[in-house]
Each structure stands twice: as C-alpha cells, then as structure tokens.
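[Automated response] Your request has been received and processed.

Submitted sequence:
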Amino acid sequence: MQRPFRRIIVGSVFFILTVLGAVYGYILAGWSVLDAVYMVVITIFGVGYGEVQPLDSAQLRVFTILVIIAGVLSVAYIVGGFLQLVTEGEIRKVFKNKRMTQEIQNLQRHVIVCGYGRMGQMLSRRLWQEKQAFVVLDQDPERIAMAQELGYLVYHGNAADENNLQAVGIERAKALSTVLPDDASNVFITLTAREMNPALIILARGKLPSTEKKLRLAGANHVVLPVAIGAIRMAHLITHPTAVDFLSQTDKGASLNELLGELDIQLNELPITANSPLIGGTIGDIEVRGRGTFIIVALRRATGEVLIHPSRETYLAQDDSVILMGHQGDMPKFAQNHTHRSGMRYRGARVR
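Generated structure:
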C-alpha cells in the first residue's frame, strides 16, 4: 500500500494534468478559454448545468467521457489518500495509547510524577537517567505530548481526580511526587494520595514556606521548597564560596555521593532490625564499637522523624535507621564483625 502523502501527491499531479489536457482539448475544438475551463469544471465535479456548447461530434463526446473518468479517478485517489492519512494516524494513536495503558497497568513500585512543568521535566529526566520506572500525570495536552515524544509513560488527566490516580496505579506505586505550581493543588493531591495508599512515599513541592506544615499534615513525607533551597544556596555562595565551588566542580554533574566516593568516603545506612542487639542502646554505643572509623550523620526514627547529628545519649529503637559516613572499607567491616558476634543483620545502601 502506498504511503498517504505519496497518494495525495500523485493524485494531485494527475488531476492537474487532466484539467490542463481537457482545457487544451476543448480549445482545439474551437472553444474559448473561459468556456473550456467552465466545461471542465462542471464535467469533472458533476455539477450538471449542461454543456456550454453542443457536443456535435463523436470525437468530442468520447473526449468528454475520458475527461469525466480521469477527473473522477484523480479526485477519488486524492480523497483516498487523505482518508488513509487520517485513518492510519487515528489507528496508530489508538494502538499507541492502548499499549501505553497496558504498560502502566503492568508497573510495580513505580513513581508517579504529578505535573510536567519545569520541575516535573527535570525530575522526569533524572528518573529516566536512573532507569526508575515512572509515569507522568498532567492535564495539559501539550505537556503530555512533549513527555510522550521523549518516550515517557504518560496519562492525560487531573492529578486531583481519584480515578486518574487509580489509572496510573497508585496502589502499586512506591512514591508520588506532586510538583504543580499551585500549593492548594499539591495539598489536595497529597491528601487524596495518602488516603488511597497509606504506605506511599509522597514528595510535595511548596511555593510558600507556610505551605510546608499543611503538606505534612496532609500526609507528605518530604516537602521541597525551591525558593528556600535557592536562597540557602545563594547564602552559601556568599559566606562559603570556596566550599560551594569545590562541591560544584564535579565531572559531568556528579552527585555529592559520587564525589565522596572519589575520596573513598561513603554514606551508608545501618537499620536497627527486630533482632538487633543495639535496640535499647544509644548512639554512643555505636560510636564506641566503631572506634572512630566513621561518624554518625543522622538518625531516622521508625515514625519518619529525622534527627540530624543526634547526641550520644539518644536511644535506639526497632526499625530506626542510622546514617553513617566513613571510609568505604571500614563500615562493611564494622557490620560484618557485629554480624558474627551478635547476629545483627545489616543492610548497606549507598545513598543516591
């Protein structure tokens, strides 16, 4: 089957040649140019107003019949090309949407990105680079088309609608990020998502500092304030320019943890599991056992509360996680030694 554009071009060329040939034929028969053009138009398009001049010869009648056949065929060929173009485009669109819907239904432990503005685009690009499964949910057709051209899974709809959140598999997702420019929308989406999936990790964008409390009350695990982050970075550039420049001068935009890796330093997580002998102990106990091979950066409680640089007297409970920073070879040895001696299970995870 010929491609639609080729059919349209071929049909148009044939139609033009038919019109020119028919006009020239009637002129040779002694007709004026205007009469010839008028005759060709009413003949090809079947208007049926009657002949301009009588067709008094068999040759002229046969010629008119040929003009009718050639004109109708060329017009039909052009119309067929247009229909094929529209039909194939619609069919391709239907199959593409169906395939995408099927892929979304098969997603597990994925991320839902609500909003494909500037922040959503940057987030999606990063998730794509990290090969993290995700789906973009936005109600703007232009933004959806833009994301679809990049190969992202997309769904056109309002993120505040429960039906749309169900369509992108919120019950199977591991995280949802709502990065709309409107704080009220982000609060409502957070509230809806938390109700639909209590175990979901929700990251929300806040435009105003006063919105952070509302987002956390609505169920957000983490709140990002772009304005505050920008202001803090500018302040650091003023007060600590050399340190900031050092952290920024990494090849190909490497992350902080990659830079630490080059220095043989790593961030690790030490979970306090159900059978851990550290339950009931303190941060100081870990520091003593570590013998100065690492420092404790933070403590994440089972409730989600994060304590930055906890004191030595801070007690440890089940399902807490201790964030450590030290040389890459020291922390696994520390965990292995305590595993053999105390049966403590350790899960090291490099922070990305």
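Summary generated for your ticket: The longest strand covers residues 265-271. Strands lie at 111-114, 134-138, 153-156, 175-178, 201-205, 222-224, 265-271, 294-300, 306-308, 321-327.
If you did not submit this request, please reply to this message.
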